[in-house]
Structures are given as C-alpha cells and as structure tokens.
Structure prediction request, 234 residues.
Amino acid sequence: MNQNKPSVIATGDFLYFAPAGQAFTVPQAGVVSNVSKPGVTDPIWTTFALGTVKKPTQDKWDGKPVKISAPMPGTGIVVTTNIIRPTQGLQMMVEMNELFRVALAGFYKSPLIMLTDTALYPLSRSDGLQGWLKRQRYDAAKGLWITDDWWVDVDVTDLATDEENVIHPKFQFEWLYSPLAGTAI
Amino acid sequence: MFKKDKVESIDHKNLPKPYKPDELQKLNDARQAEAESQKSETKPEEKAE
Prediction:
C-alpha cells in the first residue's frame, strides 16, 4: 500500500482459514498452531474455505484506560500526562455469502467437520475453534492494500437468512496472541 | 514478543488447490502416528527416572 498520501479505499476482502491441529506441508511438514503457520502456497488455506465476503467489519476494544496524572512542571496544577491501556483486543465480524463446514461447526459448536464426515454432533465441543485467518483486502484502484495474519478464535454467531431466503453466516473472529501474527502493508 | 516473520499474501490468480479428502486424512494420520511414536519413545526414559 502506498503510504505517501492518504487514500479513499473501497475494500474487497478475501478470507483464508487454516484450522488448528491440521497437517500441512509447506514450507515444511507441520501442524497448524499458534507457533506454526502454513506457507502461502499450502493447500490448507483453500481446503477449509469460508466463502466470499459480503460485509466485513472490525472492531477493537480496550479495558478501562488508566490515566496518569502529574503536576505541570513548576506548578501545582495536576493534569493528565499519559494514558495507559493495559487490556486491548481486536475483533473482526464478517458476513459471508456461502455456507460451508467451518460455519456449520462454528454455529453448532461441533468439532471441526472434516471433508469425509457425513454427520456433525451439535454442542459437543467445549473448547474454542481456533486457527490462522489470513485476510487480504483489495481496493478498486491499487489492488492489494493490506494482508492480515491473525491467530483467532472463531465463533459463528448467526446463520442469518435474508429477504430472498439466502443464508449468510456471521463469523466473529477474536484476535489471540501469537508471535507469528502480523500485518503487511 | 512478535517474530519479525514476513506476512505473505496468497496469489489470488494462482490459488493453491485444496487438499483432496483422502490426502488430508493421510497427512493427519501420518502426523498423529509420528506424534504417538515420539511419545512411546520417551516413555521408557520417564519410567527409568
């Protein structure tokens, strides 16, 4: 992304997902975890496809900011000199056009549905569904302007049906710490 | 805190082809077997201690 001047961006987002615990082979054999991220040419990114993005939104939250107050030099007036935000978080809420197995597993709280599975078992998962989320955002003029690598907890809050009876799963991705997380601009 | 690994982008004109169901199953089984064999290799040492 050109950082020389501010720009107006109408974004088209693409999401790729690699679920925790799945084997991958690129750049070397490994298992997806918060300390092990598949390379971009590994087929795992497209095996558990989420679909196309209808509406991407994101949010951040802070815990209560702590204000540090101190007197201005040489005066008795106490003013705010700093604000510390010790608790922080990032979320991504995305509405998709298609329904696929990660959306079903997320909504029904079942274990991850594998390609060969023919059934799912609702409410049979107590731990979170985690994985690597790669979000690529394209603008109309300049192409790819940002790529996010987030290690996330996945929740599907709703399998919403629109006026034409089309189902749009609503994903909520919560950013979790990983030393391999980052964003390319 | 963060490793300065480059964040790479997937080439949208040349997307990786998804794993076939049996391919991924085989990979996962192989990794599982490898993890279990490593566990069983370390067990005798634990017992010796």
